[in-house]
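User: Fold this; tokens only.

Assistant: Input:
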Amino acid sequence: MAAVARSSRLAPRLAALSRPAFARAGASSVAQRAAFSVSAGRMKSEVIKEMEVPVTVYSSDAKGTASSNSADHFSIPVKAGAAAPAAQTADAPEDAVTPLQDKVFRQMPRTMQKMSIMGKVVIVTGGARGLGNHMARACAEAGAKAIAIFDANQDLGDESAAELHQKTGLPVSFFKVDVRDGNAINAAVQNVVDLYGAPDVLVNSAGIADSNIKAETYDPAMFRRLIDINLNGSFLMAQAVGRTMMAAGKHGSIVLVASMSGSIVNYPQEQSCYNASKAGVIQLGRSLAAEWAKYNIRVNCISPGYMDTALNRVPALDAQKKIWKSLTPQDRLGAVDDLNGLCVFLASDASGFMTGSNVLIDGGYTLY
């Protein structure tokens, strides 16, 4: 009798277990759908449409003292529909370069002080023109103690160094250096040490680009030359400056200018060598960052997208530039000063916990 009783009690359970899983889940899924329907209906009915937005503004008194008692409370009306923002006209670019003064620096909040490069010695390669020259100007404005421009072009280098000195009053020097020449680099870096002390920052912007050359017809000599300048030159500069930082026991920052071409393949132009060279620069930066972290030397890369430099302002590239812009979400090429803020940030102590990074600044091109 006991066995029969047990069997009768187990029968409903066994029957339930013998049903397919989807059948067992049916009741609970119906309940879940019902609950979801109720929740969804409730969410639809709970759309908030405020008629006004309460605002509290805290401002200092006439003596400049902050006080919670000086708050203004008011409301602003909410208009139906989304209003388009008012168009703003851009200010005309100024050619002036205003260096950060010590008095101003001391009055800045701590966060802004860390974002400066006050008192630092900076070397900029490829600084005679274009992106490198604008980054050198940005370093001057951010508080650099002295700037050394390395470039292979004697005339442009002398002209740009003299102009930067005249505009800022800062010590600026020019060294005619080909980044493929290790001995010349070592001599120039040592002279920077003799003049200003060991460098705190290297911005390596020197490089060239060969484009619209099919891989199957690429001249091997041209291929080697571009790799020698873009990749080997980046290594030789980083090595020379890194050694002086280590010898001086300085916390240093090395910024290598790579390219988005090191991470993607450009369209429509063929440029296998340039892409390979910049991919090498990115991996070089990561490797040096890993090796030199123990010396408190940080190494990061900037990877620009298509930039509106003088080298790109030629009629032969007009058709391609239309394609480049159409593939860029911001629908424009980068301005020559669009790298400045990132350059200063990477050079500054504000990026002190950042090393081995490759930062894309391309108007969104690599999003697609």
